[in-house]
Amino acid sequence: MYGSIARITTSFIDVPGSIAVAVYFAGCSIRCPDCQNKQLWDRAQGLAMSTDTVVACIQEHPLAEAVVFLGGEPTDQLDFLHSICCTIGSKKKVLYTGREFEWLPTTLTDQLDMIVCGPYRQELHVNKWPASSNQRVLLKDQGSWITQVT
Ligand code: SF4
Question: Which CATH class is domain 2-148?
Fold first, then answer.
């Protein structure tokens, strides 16, 4: 399977307490007015990559304990995102999405360990993580999702 990826890099900030491989998906259909990543709205600006190529790039970072999917909007490429999650093995899997948790299919959430969800809204900006107060952080705990107080 192929999808559109903007870049893959190391992240020290997106998963608290963990070194992560950050996979930036290209394209976002949500178009929040206050988006800080408008350069990633156009899916056509990304590189066409196969699931196997993305997984090989992730495996080039053996010290990373986590993989974080962000963008852009990873869930605009739901099947591609799911195929990567199913192939990368035991690393912690984290999703940043502008959509709400209730929108996400269980076939995807079953694969994930942590989700930061909801659109960025400038009028709700806070000087902490995540960046606006409407955004929720959900953690999987023994198979159930709990909302983390941030
Ligand atoms: S969902 Fe994220 S990438 Fe998409 S417009 Fe909103 S803030 Fe920007």
Answer: alpha beta
